[in-house]
Design brief:
Elements: H1 2-8, H2 10-17, H3 27-46, H4 54-79, H5 85-117
Helix pairs in contact: 3-4, 3-5, 4-5
């Protein structure tokens, strides 16, 4: 998400939401979130699919991202006046894809470690 928020979509967020953004982000909330979220993705999409294919990890990751980023984006869109439909949709899509890709990367790493431990 750092790449997304800091580089790829920074211009979109600045043009769409400038009055709502802090001049200096507070880092601890997103650090806490991503530590928790990473653990949840690992348990629900990686470990849960350890004996299935990469596709299952990707699908479960996408569903988790769809729900998690959807909860944030739909809520923000409904209660924050300057949270635009455009930002809601691109952020939601990004989070869904990012979580799916993260789950697949985690699954591949898990399989690599699992394979080495069985030798």
């Amino acid at each position: 998400d750092f790449l997304w928020l800091g580089v790829i979509a920074d211009g979109w967020y600045q043009s769409e939401m400038a009055p709502l953004l802090r001049s200096q982000f507070i880092t601890w909330p997103w650090v806490v979130f991503y530590l928790m979220y990473g653990c949840v993705v690992f348990v629900l999409a990686v470990v849960a699919n350890r004996d299935k294919s990469l596709l299952y990890a990707g699908i479960d990751g996408a569903l988790l991202g769809l729900a998690s980023y959807g909860a944030y984006n739909l809520t923000a869109y409904s209660i924050i006046e300057g949270f635009t439909l455009f930002i809601m949709l691109i952020d939601w899509a990004w989070g869904t894809c990012l979580t799916s890709a993260s789950a697949m990367a985690g699954w591949l790493g898990f399989q690599l470690v699992k394979g080495k431990s069985s030798e």
